[in-house]
Design goal:
The chain contains three helices and nine strands; from the N terminus they run αββαββββββαβ. It is an alpha+beta fold. The strands form two sheets. Strands 6-5-8-3-2-1-9 form a seven-stranded mixed β-sheet. Strands 4-7 form a two-stranded antiparallel sheet. A hairpin with a 5-residue loop joins strand 5 and strand 6. The longest helix has 20 residues. The termini are far apart. The relative contact order is 0.20. About 10% of the residues have low confidence.
Length: 145
C-alpha cells in the first residue's frame, strides 16, 4: 500500500509539473509612472501559479503582470523562483499600494498593503532605480474582471 501511495504522489507531481510547462503568457506593455515596462500577463490561475518560477533571467525592462479575480490582500512568495524580484501591488485604479523586494527560493509571504487587483513583478531594484513609489500610477492595465 505504501509503495502505491508513493507512486501516486510521483504521478501527481509529474502531471502538475507537465501542466505548468504548458502555460503560456501573452505580452503587453504598461507604464509605471513614466517608465515603459514589457510584461507577460498572468490573468488565469495556472499562469498566476507558475509566475516567474524556474526562470534564470528576466530582461532589464521586463516583468510579469498578475491580474487577480477579486480585490484583496494578495501575497506572493518565491518558491522555485531563481532570480531576485521586486513586486508592486496595485489597486483597481492603477495606484501602487506598496513595493516589496523578494529574495529567490524563499517561502516568505509578501503581502499587498491594501485591496490589490494587480501585481507587477520585475527585477529586484527596478522600481527603486526608476524612483517609483507607493502612490504612483500604472497605466495601460487591462480592465479588471
Amino acid at each position: 500500500m505504501k509503495a502505491s501511495a508513493v507512486l501516486a504522489a510521483i504521478v501527481l507531481y509529474a502531471a502538475s509539473v507537465a501542466a505548468l510547462a504548458d502555460v503560456s503568457f501573452k505580452t503587453s506593455q504598461v507604464k509605471v509612472g513614466p517608465h515603459a515596462l514589457k510584461v507577460e500577463v498572468a490573468a488565469e490561475e495556472p499562469q498566476r501559479m507558475q509566475g516567474l518560477m524556474n526562470r534564470t533571467r528576466l530582461g532589464r525592462e521586463d516583468g510579469m503582470l498578475f491580474i487577480f479575480d477579486e480585490p484583496g490582500y494578495h501575497s506572493m512568495w518565491m518558491k522555485n523562483t531563481l532570480i531576485p524580484l521586486s513586486v508592486a501591488f496595485i489597486d483597481r485604479n492603477g495606484l501602487i499600494l506598496n513595493i516589496l523586494d523578494m529574495e529567490p527560493q524563499t517561502l516568505d509571504s509578501h503581502m499587498a498593503a491594501g485591496p490589490a487587483v494587480y501585481a507587477i513583478e520585475t527585477n529586484k531594484g527596478w522600481f527603486a532605480a526608476k524612483k517609483v513609489k507607493a502612490g504612483d500610477k500604472v497605466t495601460g492595465l487591462p480592465a479588471p474582471r
